[in-house]
Amino acid sequence: MKVFFRRGDVPSKSRLQLSNRIMDEMGEGYGYGSIDGEDVLSKLRGQRFRHLEGQVYLDHAGATVYGSHQVEEHAKLLMQNVFGNPHSSSSPSSQRTTDSIDSVRRDLAAFFNTTLEEYDVVFTSGTTAGLKLIGESFPFSRQSSFAYSMDSHNSVLGIRSYAAAHDARIFALPVDVLDSIGQQPTSSLPPLDDDSRTHEVCNLVAFPGECNFSGAKHSLSTIDWVHHHNALNDMKTLPEYQVNSNRPSGDRPLGKWFVLLDAAKLAATNPVDLSKYKPDFMVMSFYKLFGYPSGLGALLIRRSSAPYLAKPYHGGGTLAASFPTLLDASRPHAATHRRFEDGTLPYLSILACTIGLQSLRNLTMPAIQRHVAALTTYAWHALTALRHANGARVCTIYGTHHRDPDAGSIIACNFSTPDGAWVGYSEFSTLAALHDIHVRTGCFCNPGACQAHLGLTTDEMLAHMAQGHVCGDAMDIIHNRPTGAIRVSFGYMSTQQDVDAFIMFVATYFVSSRTHLAASRLQVGHDVPASIRLVKIAVFPIKSCGAMHVDRWRVGARGLLFDREWALVDPATGAAFSQKHMPLMATIRPVVDLDAQQLHVSCDNRSSKLSIPLHYVPNSPTRFQLCAEHCQGRKYNDTVNAWFTSVLGRPCALVRATSTGTHHTTRTNGFANEAPFLVLSRASVRLLHSKFGGTDTISEDGFRANLILDGCRPHEEDEWGEFFIGPHAFRCVGPCGRCTMVNVNQATGTSRTAPLKQLASYRRHRGKIHFGQYAAFNATDEVAPCWIHVGDSVTVLTPQSMDNGSSELEL
After folding, report:
1. Per-residue pLDDT, 400
2. Within the chain, which residue ranges are assigned CATH 3.90.1150.10?
3. How far apart, in whole angstroms, are the C-alpha atoms of residue 768 and residue 775?
4. Which BP terms in the Gene Ontology apply to this protein (predicted)?
5. Are 244 and 261 in contact (CB under 8 A)?
6. I need a surface site. Which of 96, 297, 318, 685 has the fewest CB within 10 A?
7. Alpha-carbon span 284 to 296, nearest angstrom
8. According to the model, what pLDDT value does residue 16 have?
9. How far apart are CA 514 and CA 509, in angstroms?
């Protein structure tokens, strides 16, 4: 087998030897063999997954990739037949739909090696909907218990609210405790006696077949031990794991236990045999298996367990009889799936499942399991072999299961610098996206596994939340510790080339090839040019909109007068807009007219303009979110907001900063991100231009600096502490971490990837991409107005610690 590298990269001899050794350890599980001398996997990628060309898709645990044949065959099926609403049972099109749906039910049961005689198949909108159905239908009582493994998905944790509503006891089982149940021998187990389960008290235990955070698998023999041996009732330590404090934790549970298997991740790349292991309920999503259709899943209910479920709501199609004037006379359909499928099913989407299931059957699930396990092993060895030049480990992988030949298809990890500082997952995903590498970052809706693997206490996680950290944000490092991870996951069409491309990306950007930073420290009064000048002043009245360039401007503790004084906010979500998601904002040109005391706003593609009095502060207070921080401001009226809505093509509201609220009790700098000023030298921009090799350029305006200087060395501003512009004192407070906004052309509002890519190649320090320095105004007495002018001289007094930034990448 060949080692693949992208885009002309030539591997070193040592790296090639390492890759060959890793491939030997990958074993024979990779791929699906050959037919008539043609490699099956290569043919599969070439014929059905051409849309993956140039992409490195490694988020199959989120959703695997659909094949072009699925879409084409589904479209052909729809175009050659007429399918009607299955509830219109008298029409031939309805009967055709009903027959087709029933065929998919049989196919799905067979896919899991069972029959519709033992399990009924209930179609849902996905795994979460199936879990919700069980939660609202399960017969919880005050005597009941609900237990779940700590590495359960949030959708499983949601069942706690139904159990708590009935005052049931709730237990969070550590992963090792759950696994200890399934590790006992099962050869001597007696046959399952369903009659023994007709106890008045019903309990429920839920766990994932494969953890969607780490890829660790749980033994399905746990199901048998729960059913046959009352393993949870006999567990002496179970009361220790009770989480609802309002209930005394004394006695062990009574009654019979039902098992809910979350197979959303497991079923995607592993055979699930329901003839061998028989959970009472199992949930899954089709897009995890074969990508298309999305928004569709199934709940498999064991028929012997179905009578215990009491569904509280019955919508259209679930009732055999109903009376509008009688409350207790409605009669649900006898068939389980008819009782649980409210309303009209997404029947056209269900028809597509036959095509996807056939694709997996052709490859076989055991072969898919071996293939993804081989890739996971290959990636695990490659990542764990990476070392910085000083010998420090590059990658920390969570979990110890990856050497197992039956390993799952996930690697969750974080990366660190040579000195042990963590690389933020937000920066990692930003760089990965620039290279068309698709990964998932954060906690993946699995707080228990995230907490356990990151070693965070509950108090620490609560403190993170109090600081504004929420799921999906960019607060990836708090108090020098990661708040989430980077997840790489493989699917049945993943290739070794995908892994090689990912490893090359990591080696390029996150592996240090020298032992120390080659950046000189500035000495006071030494090597500081005497001719540094302020050459440009840029004011950004509306955050993330265009700049206003001036020859002179007033400064103060809040920064340049009226800088980031206003922001545009989504009125529905309360989130502030930015060019990262709306690059068109760059074409909105605000101008502060101090003589007329007006804010004039225009847009490149509109003839109409907007003018707002500077002295006017709206009376309508509003709270909104700026990055991860909650802020307060004053919202303008509908007329003003209508103008911005028309320009951007989506509802938005203009908000003005106030001097109160969370944001301004800690920082009095309008809506600026980190500090009142952003300083950048033209020499730094020239150096960046030289990195492009003359093929591309970026305007200095793309970095949205307030103060642009000239006459100093490239990135000399990184080394400054205190400096003067004319007679006014400033101090550098830290480097500016860059994101995809530098890719936005400030003249046209269009985006590209080159600028941030190029910066990342030489301007990374401790996992961040730095370009420019934040600064603050040092004046203590602002009685007299302070003005700066283009042409003012710049005098540097003191250096700052190099810990705040660097002039070169740690490579």
Report:
1. 83
2. 13-60+368-510
3. 18
4. Mo-molybdopterin cofactor biosynthetic process
5. no
6. 96
7. 9
8. 45
9. 13
> Token digits for 604?
């490149």
Q: Does residue 255 sit in helix, strand or coil?
A: coil
Q: Which amino acid is at 97?
A: T
pLDDT tens, 755-809? Answer: 888 888 888 877 688 999 999 998 665 557 899 999 999 999 877 654 444 433 3
Is-contact 523 799, C-beta < 8 A?
Answer: yes
CA distances from 2 to 5, 16, 31, 483, 516 (A): 10, 10, 13, 37, 35
Q: pLDDT band for position 692 (50/70/90)? A: confident
Nearest to 547 by CA among 417, 703, 425, 426: 703
What tokens appear for 804 in the block? 């705040």
Give the pLDDT score at 762: 86
- Distance CA(437)–CA(69), nearest Å, equals 24
Band the pLDDT of 408: cuts 50, 70, 90.
confident
CATH 2.40.33.20 residue spans of the chain: 674-804
Q: Calculate the CA dihedral of residues 517, 519, 523, 526 and round it to 10 degrees.
A: 160
177 vs 468, higher pLDDT = 177
Please name the amino acid found at residue 215. G
CA distance 204 to 145: 6
- Residue 477 CB-half CA count within 13 A: 16
pLDDT of residue 490 exceeding 80, the answer is yes
Geometric angle at alpha carbon 741, from 739 and 742, rounded to 5°: 85
* Residue 26 DSSP code: H
In 3D, which of 495, 500, 484 has the Cα closest to residue 398? 484
Residues 119-166 have pLDDT tens digits of: 999 999 999 999 999 999 999 999 999 999 999 999 999 999 999 999
Verify cis geometry, omega within 30 degrees of 0, for the bond prior to 293. yes
The domain covering 674-804 belongs, at the CATH homologous superfamily level, to PK beta-barrel domain-like (2.40.33.20)
Q: What is the pLDDT of residue 11?
A: 43
Model confidence at 600, in pLDDT bands (50, 70, 90)? very high
Reply yes or no on whether the pLDDT at 351 is more than 90. yes
Q: Write the class of the CATH domain 13-60+368-510.
A: alpha beta
423 phi and psi angles, rounded to 5 deg: -90, 130
Give the 3-state secondary structure of 107-162. Answer: HHHHHCCCCCCCEEEEEECCHHHHHHHHHHHCCCCCCCEEEEECCCCHHHHCCHHH
- Topology of domain 92-360 in CATH is Aspartate Aminotransferase; domain 2 (3.40.640)
Question: Residues of 59-98 as b/e, b for ≥16 C-beta within 10 angstroms?
Answer: bbbbbbbbbebbeebbeebeeeeebbebeeeeeeebebbb
- State the Cα–Cα distance between residues 45 and 396, nearest whole angstrom: 31
Encode pLDDT of 78-106 as tens digits.
Answer: 999 999 999 998 899 999 999 999 999 99
State the first-to-last Cα distance of the chain, in angstroms, to the nearest integer: 31
Model confidence over 45-83: pLDDT tens digits? 999 999 999 999 999 999 999 999 999 999 999 999 999
Instruction: Map tokens 């970026």 to a residue.
Output: 698
pLDDT band at 629 (very low <50, low <70, confident <90, very high): confident
| Cβ-contact 804, 772 below 8 angstroms | no
| CATH 3.40.640.10 in the chain, residue ranges | 92-360
Phi, psi angle pair for 243, to nearest 5°: -110, -20
Say which amino acid occupies 794. V
What DSSP element (H or E) covers 623? Answer: strand 620-626
* Residue that has been written with the tokens 């089709």 in this structure: 286
Contact 175, 149 (CB under 8 A): yes
What three-state secondary structure class fits 660? Answer: coil
Instruction: Name the residue with higher pLDDT: 654 or 15.
Output: 654
256-262/202-208 β-pairing: parallel
Q: Which residues are catalytically annotated? A: 445
